Amino acid sequence: MASSEVDQKFLGRLAKMVEPTNALLASMLFKILGLSINVAGQLVKAKKARRLDTPRSAQSLELYFHIIWLSREGLVMLEQYVLPMVGDNAELRVLAYKLRASFYHIFVQFHNNPPVSPLGIATTPEAAAAAAATMPQVAPRVDKGKGVDRGDGAGFARTSVQPTHPIEQGGPAPPPGFESQAPPPFTPEAAAAFLLPYVDYLPTAHQYFREACVLADTLLWGSHSLRLSVKTEYAAFLYECVHDQEGSRKLARDTIAEVYEASEGMDDDMFNDACELVTVLGKMMKRGLGAGGSRSGGRPSPSVTLGTSQGAESSATVVPPMPPVGMENPI
Questions:
Q1: What is the per-residue pLDDT across 215-225, written as a single tens digit (0 to 9) for each?
Q2: Could you tell me the CA-to-CA distances from 275 to 27, 230, 252, 289 in Å, in that order?
Q3: Cα-flanking dihedrals φ and ψ of residue 100, to 5°?
Q4: How far is residue 29's CA from residue 22's CA, in Å, rounded to a whole number?
Q5: pLDDT (tens digit, 9 = 90+) per residue, 67-118?
Q6: Contact yes or no for 113/198 (Cβ under 8 A)
Q7: Single pTM value for the model
Q8: How far apart are CA 45 and CA 4, in angstroms?
Q9: Which residue from 60, 92, 251, 328 has the least number of CB within 10 angstroms?
Q10: Nearest-CA neighbor of 110 among 174, 60, 168?
């Protein structure tokens, strides 16, 4: 999401590059960089808390609210100050479009209606009940025998005290339609709605990822680390939010094939980033296949075939072996 190390490197590099000519744009890029680093730590904590705290305690909800707030502020800065000023800088334009999709990716994961990710704020009645249990409860009033109990007619004793007239109990009754109503039950979704509307962000996020991918394919070469960052998060989005597992694996497989076909040069830093992202894409290519999706060690390694039929019935897709670091055609 809006927190990968590749994105942070390009944010700092591009902010430094445009600072002499556009101080406002550089300032916003630096702010988004700091926010991105903060979000990265919060997301790691949220994923760990999700595994340990299924019903979502008050501390977990506070963490989720913080993530939603940071993402909302980052999106506001991006749409108001960065996107209108990207100009013809190819890397900055791709990065801005990718960050916009990344912020919506966070909204889909944590605050989507209907929920599509297990990371979302309490989505089940059990989780909502557990979250409500953490709210302070009002203790019942203890009757010390000093007043007249009119709550129950059973066992009512005769008394000389005259009953109070309804008009004397606090003024006239409210007009029709304005009677006092019990407050709605506490739900984490309603509590987070003051930060961000509780709507369906999935179609918007999907559209923004498509736009970022098209832009990256048009402006950047196949082994560019920023292009690989866009494709890596899009593959994760397809798998975790859209639940298109085969589409996610195909995107990862096609991206790796495009990397090996690229012939453009790169520096050592970009080469290392590309190697790490290709490794992640290789894992995504096998994600969800289980033990049956891995090739046995006794079978010979087949040659790389890029023209694999998309309508094949078999789920065990042949994966080209990963070349060593000292390969002749690096990335």
A1: 999 999 999 99
A2: 31, 15, 14, 23
A3: -60, -45
A4: 11
A5: 999 999 999 999 999 999 998 899 999 999 999 999 999 999 999 989 998 8
A6: yes
A7: 0.70
A8: 15
A9: 328
A10: 60
